[in-house]
Specification:
The structure holds 2 protein chains of 2 kinds. In chain A, α5 crosses α8. Chain A has one domain. The model of chain A has no long low-confidence stretch (mean pLDDT about 90). Chain A is mainly α. In chain B, the strands form 2 sheets. Chain B has a 6-stranded mixed sheet, with helices on both faces. By secondary structure, chain B is of the alpha/beta class. The chains are: A mainly alpha, B alpha/beta. The interface between A and B is medium-sized, with 13 and 20 residues.
Chain lengths: ~270, ~280
């Protein structure tokens, strides 16, 4: 009996492994197909601009408000710690580096996955459920070129802009709290920040991170939507998977990118 | 038309064939075959219905003809071209000559009625906007919805959505139009309108039409020929008059709407006494 239970368990593990490998291979093939069709997003510029509006412009409210509050909280917490060491004039540096290097790309990426990634998955999934993708195929129009590529590109272009705006509003929020509320000298707040933040090392690396997160979230969102089961439950599951997979991917990729980008940390 | 399966009427004289299925078998997985040895030929200019119960493989036949699925056995030709032998470009070139109306219209919800009908023209032609406008309005006029051009799909009733989808299906003047359950969920007036439109467009444009449906009464009014599919096989075929007069058991059950017959009421199960004896 134990042997048979072990065999059943082993079979389940084997089946789950095979399914995972198959899905991974399918996702890889899908990614290649999306990349092959990507140039069509440039030919369909109006569609791509529309997607930038939907995934970028419509995400502005949540990104800007979150950025402002994250910056304000960072300033409050940072001031509390820095005061203990008599370094409260470095508040601007602390906030700017935290936002530009890490929090901007990561938090904006997580919010982007929740707001835009889930919407992309749900939209494509519903198009599949209502046979719009099949109709397109039957009209000799490739859905990968017409539906997927513009959304993929729209996401990639939106993400770095959203991350930049998140960081900008975060720094502004820190200025409001640190300078206006607490009373830190504005000159040292901005001057120290300007001296400590390196364009290539900090800002460019932050932008690279946000582009990578944009690629990951957009790819996951279109993949899950395109391969959703054409039922209400299927679309709901796909949307959830997008948010979970995107969030985990962002955190994992952030670690890997940080290791490569900031070797001065001693890693 | 061939009489490869039990037939209720002698086949019509062979004419130029638009679509032909020869010994076509297909299954979504190995355990459950959906179609088993289907033979069917659809002459150019005719309106042919494929009928059968839910899940009998009717829609699968349309997907096979359109090249969205590939048969595991047999051959499908559209205008003489072997569909399975076509590469992606060839398949897309063939589909430009085919229009398809999906069960609930499958209109693009982010586009207006006008843009839905203009969609194939914009994708496949270089026509100027003025000409596209005129063509779209002509197509919409043909289905009686010129005045609804600026509405969104969400503002349409089921029957109107089906008519817009019909206008879109004929946008590029196809040689073949396939209809997947065009009558499903329609009120009697919309049903009659859609039925008559299918017939009139078929005759006026000289196209070939394949209608997948289980609405026997509407079909008998408009089609030239009917194939009955059950359990993946063609179990009967004939003209509407022959179908009405048929004594073939499957056809009679279908026409009369009888709950039991060749298509059983009960899903296969153990005998009743055995089931209850076990439970006791």
């Amino acid at each position: 009996m134990p042997a048979s239970t072990a065999a059943v368990a082993l079979r389940r593990i084997g089946r789950a492994t095979l399914n995972s490998v198959e899905r991974l291979g399918f996702a890889a093939r899908f990614s290649v197909a999306v990349l092959v069709h990507s140039p069509s997003a440039l030919r369909r510029l109006r569609l791509t601009l529309r997607e930038i509006y939907f995934s970028g412009v419509l995400s502005l409210v949540i990104i800007l408000v979150s950025g402002l509050f994250v910056g304000m909280v960072l300033a409050l917490q940072g001031y509390d710690v820095l005061t203990r060491y008599g370094a409260n004039e470095s508040l601007g540096v602390l906030v700017a580096l935290s936002l530009v290097r890490e929090l901007g790309p990561v938090v904006a990426g997580l919010l982007f996955a929740s707001r835009a990634g889930s919407a992309i998955t749900a939209e494509i999934g519903l198009m599949k459920t209502t046979e719009q993708l099949s109709a397109m195929e039957m009209m000799a129009v490739d859905p990968l070129a017409r539906v997927v590529a513009p959304r993929f590109f729209g996401g990639i272009l939106s993400m770095p802009l959203l991350a930049a705006l998140f960081s900008t509003l975060g720094i502004f929020g820190a200025y409001l709290v640190g300078v206006r509320l607490i009373g830190i000298d504005a000159g040292s707040f901005w001057g120290n920040m300007q001296a400590a933040v390196d364009f290539r090392y900090d800002i460019v690396n932050g932008i690279i991170k946000s582009v990578v997160f944009g690629i990951a979230v957009s790819l996951i969102a279109v993949f899950e939507g395109y391969n959703a089961r054409p039922t209400a439950e299927g679309v709901s599951t796909a949307t959830t998977r997008t948010v979970v997979a995107s969030s985990l991917s962002i955190l994992a990729l952030d670690f890997v990118l940080t290791v490569f980008m900031f070797r001065g940390l001693g890693v | 038309m061939p009489a490869a399966t039990p037939s209720v009427v002698a086949p019509a004289c062979p004419t130029e064939i638009a679509v032909e299925l020869t010994g076509v078998s297909f299954g979504y997985d190995r355990k459950r075959p959906v179609l088993a040895g289907i033979d069917m030929s659809i002459p150019r200019g005719k309106l042919v219905a494929i009928m059968g119960g839910s899940g009998c493989g009717k829609t699968t036949i349309l997907r096979l003809i359109g090249g969205q699925l590939r048969p595991q056995q047999g051959r499908i030709t559209v205008a003489g071209q072997d569909v399975a032998a076509l590469d992606r470009d060839g398949l897309f070139a063939m589909r430009r000559k085919i229009g398809m109306l999906f069960q609930f219209g499958a209109l693009f919800t982010d586009l207006s009625v006008f843009e839905n009908v203009a969609f194939p023209m914009r994708e496949h032609t270089e026509l100027p906007d003025e000409l596209i406008r005129d063509l779209v309005l002509m197509k919409l006029n043909a289905v009686g919805l010129r005045g609804a051009a600026q509405l969104r799909p969400s503002e349409l009733s089921g029957g109107m959505a089906r008519r817009v989808a019909l206008a879109r299906a004929i946008a590029l003047d196809p040689m073949l139009v396939m209809y997947d359950e065009p009558f499903a969920g329609l009120d009697p007036i919309s049903l009659g309108v859609v039925g008559q439109l299918i017939r009139k467009l078929n005759d006026a444009l000289g196209i070939t039409s394949v209608v997948v449906t289980h609405d026997i009464y509407e079909s008998l009014k408009i089609v030239d020929y009917i194939y009955f599919v059950s359990e993946g096989r063609i179990v009967a075929q004939g003209t509407p008059d022959a179908v009405r007069a048929s004594s073939e058991s499957f056809v009679r059950q279908f026409v009369d709407g009888a709950p039991d017959g060749p298509v059983p009421f009960h899903y296969p199960a153990r005998p009743l006494d055995e089931e209850f004896a076990r439970a006791g």
